[in-house]
Write a structure and sequence with these properties.
single chain, six-stranded mixed β-sheet, about 20% strand, globular, disordered N terminus, binds adenosine-5'-diphosphate, binds magnesium ion
């Protein structure tokens, strides 16, 4: 640091516990800003004006009863669907209506509710395949610059090894996809996404169907990715998990974003409680 560092108390005052503020997506400088997004399927309005922001380096939970429109909203953000109206901004740039590849290139990673694992490939091969897929457009270099590609291949193997270790899947590296449990496949799916090194990772029910011991691993890995600067937006049904791991929560109901704020809103906001009680069988 430079000279005038004598009385740097300004920073100290801002770190005030309990200063969580309600965010409607318009405040601050969110990494992802969803504004008035509508998506219909024929006469059915799946997403109905969803509006919220995902703060940089936050873990944000997207919750709501089945059929609320959460997965469809993910599809709109990741380019699977073009919204009928509304804007989706990533780091200020509009991305709605762009292709999944274009959105991924801009730094949005995504896992699916049903993992995409190749059953006939080993865990290591699955990850290496995903990595090669990402450098695919550069593979044409191999005809002209073979050295570049073999350097790239070594780099891929190194990254795959790192990720296997990070996810504690190294002992399963040579197992075939078909031999993995559902939970292990979800971890592998996360590995596939981490390989892209995205700025923001969207996860659709990452721990649903995962056995409790792996659940903790998976959540620890998400926290660690977040500590390393990745922003995380995840759809989750388990309120305890949301309360424990999220900095921020967005509640969807009937395609609308009903509330947005610190995790406590889940317990304190009457409309949220109502949406949940109305959405699930007691
Ligand atoms: P959630 O993920 O919150 O459970 P979804 O986004 O999957 O909700 O679904 C929201 C609504 O949109 C549901 O009524 C669902 O049946 C409908 N829907 C989702 N995808 C499609 C589709 N491709 N075609 C027709 N309807 C769909
Ligand atoms: Mg869903």
């Amino acid at each position: 640091m430079g000279a005038a560092d004598s009385d740097a108390d300004a920073d100290a005052d801002t770190d005030d516990a309990g200063s969580a503020n309600i965010d409607d997506g318009s405040a601050g400088d969110p990494l992802l800003a969803v504004d008035g997004v509508v998506k219909t399927f024929g006469g059915l309005v799946a997403v109905d004006g969803a509006t919220f922001g995902v703060e940089r380096e936050s873990i944000t939970g997207l919750i709501g009863p089945n059929g609320a429109g959460k997965s469809t909203l993910f599809d709109c953000i990741t380019g699977v669907h073009a919204p009928d109206s509304g804007t989706i901004r990533l780091d200020g740039a509009e991305i709605q209506g762009r292709s999944p590849t274009a959105v991924a290139r801009r730094g949005v990673g995504r896992t699916f509710q049903t993992p995409k694992t190749f059953r006939g490939m080993t865990v290591r091969q699955n990850l290496a395949f995903a990595a090669r897929d990402q450098v695919g457009e550069r593979a044409f270099n191999s005809m002209f610059r073979p050295n570049t590609v073999s350097a790239e291949e070594a780099d891929i193997q190194e990254r795959v090894d790192e990720i296997l270790e990070f996810l504690e899947l190294d002992h399963l590296a040579e197992e075939y996809g078909s031999a993995l449990s559902g939970g292990q496949r979800k971890l592998l799916e996360l590995g596939r996404v981490i390989l892209m090194d995205p700025d923001i990772i969207l996860l659709d029910e990452p721990i649903a169907g995962v056995n409790p011991s792996l659940t903790d691993d998976l959540l620890d890995r998400l926290e660690e990715l977040n500590d390393r600067g990745r922003t995380i937006l995840f759809i989750e049904h388990d309120i305890d998990v949301v309360m424990q791991h999220c900095d921020h929560v967005v509640v969807m109901h009937n395609g609308e974003t009903l509330a947005s704020g610190p995790p406590q809103i889940v317990q304190e906001d009457d409309r949220v409680v109502e949406a949940y009680l109305g959405g699930y069988d007691a």
